[in-house]
């Protein structure tokens, strides 16, 4: 499975690169074929060149005399990704490819320095070894010389499991030095120019970031990152606007607080905690918050009235109790400014176990809702909860995917046990007044899917568009042909909206 995953990842990355190059090539052809090249300003051409890889940017000098030196003015985005170069299966051949890759990086660095090339972003992806440590040091020295504004150093391994890893073994002191790259002293000379920093499996001196007065974006992954480090980072990086922590470990809690924080975007993705007892968030400028991982029993949220986008996924959580449902409900309503909300299978189950299982007490201002769901029966009340709690809802996305179902812990409200049909008896306000667009990804046409969609079609008075994207999976529920036939059945359902268009894809 790992080999297949790596192959697919490589294929997708290559497709992205080819697509970008094709788009840029088309843009150049259009400009030239339309005869508008003479009317295009040099500044615009420099901007286009800056989107090209180094070799292609340099080749533009051959187009005409006017283009001869334009590429030297462009601020190039330079990326070296070992995974795209080292693809052989045999260890000996892989070693040869790796040495070729390292040599190509060195050649580029030498040429760019000799020709005084402007580099805006330098991105280096390597597997950790003594040679790669040396080339990373050289890359950072190069970034200092070229006054790079955006630096990314990635020493992650494609084989690492992002959802589960043995934290005690991973963080063991004897393995730490072998698994982590430490930024060289030269890195701290970038304090006057660096605007964004991405470090994956790299360690650094947090207090020394206090002199980085332009550093607005930091992304960290696969490193030990205790609470004290998080506090130091927020204190020292006074202009920080975006912070992302992914697969970091050794935290006790998520504590992001400070009335003077400039932070606008916060992403915490599958981090590991010694004991997760609470989330504390106090960030007056925060507008985007994405969290994936374990669920805390206590959410303390203050001064967050600007949050517009909330994405929560508690897919790692193994506990499911009514108290957690109340805690989540309270958390959602403290973030009363959110207009775009994404929730997961866990939330859909636990939210209906709380004191307000149908969501009538405090409505949310959400206009765009994404449900990541398995469409299991235990999630149906949660789906109804959010439809009831979002009276202004205009856009609904249902992403059908596997999730953890709590067969031994889920406890539905008594009214649902007495009469399951009551779930869809009451039509929610958003369904009749505001919901206009619905998209279902991974449609299989299971009974729960059909019931939800029939409810929407029969009662959605202002619905304009329903898109069903058929699942490609073959399992106990059938095959794509079976799913397509079930989708066709929805075309015969009576529609409350005369403007509703249903598309099956």
UniProtKB/TrEMBL annotation:
PANTHER family: F-BOX DOMAIN-CONTAINING PROTEIN (PTHR34145:SF28), OS02G0105600 PROTEIN (PTHR34145). This is F-box protein. It comes from Pyrus ussuriensis x Pyrus communis. It holds the Pfam family LRR_At1g61320_AtMIF1. InterPro entries: At1g61320/At1g61330-like (IPR053772), F-box-like_dom_sf (IPR036047), F-box_AtFBL13-like (IPR053781), F-box_dom (IPR001810), LRR_At1g61320_AtMIF1 (IPR055357), LRR_dom_sf (IPR032675). The chain crosses the membrane at residues 20-37. Residues 42-76 form the F-box domain. CDD domains: F-box_AtFBL13-like. Keywords: Membrane, Transmembrane, Transmembrane helix. Residues 180-469 form the At1g61320/AtMIF1 LRR domain.
